[in-house]
Amino acid sequence: MEATSNGVRIYYEEKGTGFPTVFLHAFPLDHTIWTQVLERMKRPVRAITPDLRGHGLSEAPEGVYTMEILAGDVRALLDHIGVERAILVGHSIGGYVALAFARLYPQRLAGLALVATQAGADTPERRASRYAQAQEVMKKGMGPIADDLANRLTRDRDLAQRLHKIMMAMQPTGCAGALLGMAERPDSFPMLGSIQSPTVVIAGTEDAIIPTEVALKMAEAIPDCRLVEIAGAGHVPMLECPDQVALALDELIARVEAGRQHGKN
Q: CA 90 to CA 35: how far, in whole Å?
């Protein structure tokens, strides 16, 4: 299925009945990373799994994909399917987008899951690296980035090969747009204290990209937040330990629904 956001086609899939929950994938992956988790969740859920702009089957226009633009795409998708408030589950760049959504459209956020992600902006060195990668991908294609990232996301060799295949299917314009958008994202840490929705922060103890202590700091800064650390998981816990991620999301949905019953949401 497709929705349109400012003239850009956004691909998404929708399945199930229950509380509307949007699952946002990582860079440079696609919506399929959530399949195993959705198969294991026990609570009814209306699962909405888009491909972010530039990823998967969504359109990949030229330009900078700021987190605000990507959050606007999520809002446009919710408008398209007639959903006023939803839980957002964001993995890595999906977490950056979810935090931008929480800042821009707090009245439409019912719950939040931040998975292997962070609230801080890039360091100057990391920002410069993303700019260089954006130039490289436009010259050389997806190969160098896919080769670099696949084995840093997980220690599982077979899984790394699967992820490499997804990355290689990405259009270079989309990859560059996302890299530039991540480089320019603001520091979201100061706004964490204003998040009123039930939240869970999920982190793998073996994440080679975002240290576990980053997750702890985020969880401490968000008022109604629980931290779930998954032993042995790397940067893709939804693929490495789907049962534990599904359990954490089931618990989050239960908290959101309990809050609604008590008039808190």
A: 14
- The string of pLDDT tens digits covering residues 121-157 is 999 999 999 999 999 999 999 999 999 999 999 999 9
pLDDT in tens, 156-193: 999 999 999 999 999 999 999 999 999 999 999 999 99
Per-residue pLDDT reduced to its tens digit, 24-55: 999 999 999 999 999 999 999 999 999 999 99
Task: List domains and CATH numbers for the chain.
Answer: 2-119+187-261 (3.40.50.1820)
Residue tagged 């490289």 (tokens): 136
Residue-by-residue DSSP string for the chain: -EEEETTEEEEEEEE-SSEEEEEE--TT--GGGGHHHHHH--S-EEEEEEPPTTSTTS---SS---HHHHHHHHHHHHHHHT-SSEEEEEETHHHHHHHHHHHH-GGGEEEEEEES--SSPPPHHHHHHHHHHHHHHHHH-SHHHHHHHHHHH-S-HHHHHHHHHHHHTS-HHHHHHHHHHHHTPPP-GGGGGG--S-EEEEEETT-SSS-HHHHHHHHHHSTTEEEEEETT--S-HHHHSHHHHHHHHHHHHHHHHHHHHTT--
